[in-house]
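V-type ATP synthase beta chain, pasting as requested.
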Amino acid sequence: MSLKYLGLDRIEGSLVALDHVSGVSNEEMVELTLEDGSVRTGRVTMIEGERAVIQVFQGTDGLSLTNTKTRLLGHPMELGLSKEILGRTFNGIGEPIDGMGPVYASKFADVNGRPLNPVSREYPRNYIQTGISAIDGLNTLIRGQKLPIFSGSGLPHDQLAVQIVRQAKLTGEDAGNFCIVFGTMGVKNDVADMFRRSFEETGVMEKVAMYVNLSDDPIIERILTPRCALTAAEYLAYECGMNVLVILTDMTAYCEAVREFSSSNGEIPSRKGYPGYLYSDLASLYERAGIVKGGKGSVTQLPILTMPNDDITHPVPDLTGYITEGQIVLDRDLFMNGIMPPIGVLSSLSRLMKDGIGEGYTRKDHQDVANQLFACYAKVQDARSLASVIGEDELSEMDQQYMKFGRRFEQIFIGQGFHTNRSMQETLNLGWALLSTLPEAALDRLDPQLIKENYHPEHAEETIKLVLQGEQK
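Structure tokens follow.
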């Protein structure tokens, strides 16, 4: 049942207050009719006794304290859903902005979602191939996982997001049952146009549902954008049986909107001005990833956030790291050296990787190759630290070989560029080729039988040369 009220008691910024209200619910949708007959929408954000505080989406300019008519709609914000949302572009609250008309919804769903019963969750298995060696080979993305990308100001996380959307796919029987929900928050117009144009030019737009919140849009819309994107993803996964990859960028812009909204409500700030409930707020988004037992679909999250001043202890990456299952970290030193994408493999981690790779998933030698590459690259860092003190010419022969391996590993394995798409087999074969440039005695993390089958120093240079030419033996 909807209730109507005449007049407002207070207008402050984008918030209005309504007194003597009964039967109102938190996050209930509201319609405000102005004197000229125009209608604006809002949402109840706080209830204090009989007072309801409402956030107006379109702002409060022109509202009258005496003649504004307020109607409480009796339900939270709902998103119209159907499979037609694929290939479409929407604003942050789910309204079409691509000029293709409205979506004829087969269902309306609460954007806040419903928590999954932990007992009904299925453990994530299988992997999503991104075509990026530093992710597929060393930090594999598993279906149903939440794996954030930690970036910094000026680093190419937008290009990396486009590359993942363009290249991500499933292998095996589910290869055709895959789609992407892409949500942007607080981006500039040119960045949003770049995303849309890139998806259309590469022919992947038909499998993408895009939700765009621009930097000049209201902050309440920014707070709702990831919820709309995740509601769409849950519908496609659990109602349509699809495997959905959700990419959200930039979560730092979302958290800053939460901070601004909290400040306007007069709430007591916590660390760096963020509200004390930021952890639970982020968890309400990240925990919407997963697989339901008995269902065919899955929701995998790849949120992207920028760390202010590259500070990984900042509240946004810090709290995100507590909730999610690892992180992909972009490295500024690699970026300055022209390594693209600049993924710092030693500081990155996928905690669920071990359960979705190996025999029956990728290849039986995958985990061993990844462990050996990590170990060798860690020794490269030790050799570089020593070289910075005594000079590279004074290093031992073994350390000099590690230095050479490190340069090739960064330039070829990590630095594949934003337009190279490698299969899992190509990534693992390249890993073996790079390991084969080291003495066999250095491969102390590999089973002797695996070394016997795959260690081919005589073919290593040829394989690497073919990769540099854009081929793969």
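Note for the archive: The chain has three domains: 4-72, 78-355, 365-471.
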